[in-house]
Amino acid sequence: MRQIVLDTETTGLEWKKGNRVVEIGCVEMVERRPTGRTFHRYMNPQREFEQGAQEVTGLTLEFLADKPLFEDVVEEFLAFVDGAELVIHNAAFDMGFLEAELARFDGRYGLLAERVSVLDSLAVARKRYPGQRNSLDALCKRLGVDNAHRQLHGALLDAQLLAEVYLALTSGQGEIGFGAMEDATSRVSAAAALGHMAAGPRPQIVVPEADLAAHAARMEAIRKRAGGQAVWDAG
Predict the structure, then answer these.
(1) Does 153 participate in catalysis according to the annotation?
(2) So where are the chain's domains?
(3) CATH hierarchy code of domain 2-205
(4) Among the options 40, 89, 149, 153, which is catalytic?
(5) d(CA 33, CA 163)
(6) Beta bridge partners of 5
(7) What local confidence, expressed as pLDDT, does residue 146 receive?
(8) What's the pTM value of the predicted model, to 2 decimals?
(9) Residue 137's Cα: distance from chain center in Å?
């Protein structure tokens, strides 16, 4: 079984308001083992960020100015995910944005949902941990996945973390005896491989400490206005 763990970053929370995808990160797994293949692209959205989105990602229009447009990477992206099961946390959000991007081509590439199947890891987490926070950060803490290096949201980093979370979240389903032992071994090797991938170089913006503090304060203010939980917490 071929799975692609996917995450996106966007200029805002709603594609219906014209917001665009600015980053796509994908991690390939076959039979629950990471293959080492990834897809990662930044894109120039040709529009302004909404304030909250920019603070979450740390990305700027200046950084994205020389990056390709979505139309420049769409065929490479579709070739990478074609025929796979996409594992996405809060899948409706990412799929909505990606379908909106494809719709700009007037049917040339069809629907993404016609090329892939989708597994929403948020729905899986909510079923396993009803009534609890099930954001990616919360699941990392609950399942023992190290996310100390996640200071800002980034599509490839989040996809790598989600791959580890997904393996832990779905481990042992329908398995007993030697099958469970073999699955435990595969999880160890998979986690090691993902850890090696996460340790590799990733294009990023160095954010000053003062900006990180301002970001944290802003995030907390947004959560308070939203009743204690922001949309990107996805839990």
Answers:
(1) yes
(2) 2-205
(3) 3.30.420.10
(4) 153
(5) 10
(6) 27, 87
(7) 83
(8) 0.74
(9) 12
